[in-house]
Write a structure and sequence with these properties.
The protein is mainly beta. Helices cover 3% and strands 42% of the residues. Strands 1, 2, 3, 4, 5, 6 and 7 form a 7-stranded antiparallel beta sheet that branches. Strand 4 and strand 5 form a beta hairpin. The radius of gyration is 22 Å and the shape is extended.
């Protein structure tokens, strides 16, 4: 216990995960000639989140789509653009933090300066290829033995 009555910090063990700096998002956002797409992806083993820094070049867009399973936070790092949703068009500027709830329909478009943003969401489980179970559909005409 410390002098103020609080618990003393516990030193990390050899197997405890440690916080670490992953990227300089200001430097990524400053890449004016960066191609469109993901400039950075969270790829740390054992993570529970996925995150990406994405750039949409000037005048380009991400077409209307829906994410059925995941809520997404989107933070504009640089540039400007618009988010189009069923309730209208919303302006996105540096610092705008947007929640995209699962099931929502949206499209993103970059203005003349382009749009660079960070997305964060729960990690999706990886795809697994499995043998079909006894109730799985088989090839046409197949019979169970």
């Amino acid at each position: 216990m410390t002098a103020d009555g609080s618990e003393a910090p516990v030193p990390p063990g050899d197997d405890d995960p440690l916080p670490r700096i992953l990227s300089d998002t200001a430097a990524l956002a400053a890449l004016d000639d960066a191609p469109g797409g993901a400039l950075w992806r969270l790829a740390e083993p054992g993570r529970q989140l996925d995150a990406n820094v994405v750039r949409i070049p000037p005048g380009r867009r991400v077409d209307t789509h829906r994410e059925p399973e995941l809520d997404v936070l989107l933070l504009v790092l640089d540039g400007s653009g618009t988010l189009t949703a069923p309730d209208g068009t919303h302006v996105l500027t540096r610092g705008t933090l947007t929640w995209l709830p699962h099931g929502s329909t949206r499209a993103l478009a970059a203005d003349d300066a382009g749009l660079t943003y960070l997305t964060v969401h729960r990690r999706r489980p990886g795809m697994r290829i499995q043998r079909p179970g006894p109730d799985a559909p088989g090839p046409a005409g197949a019979t169970k033995s």
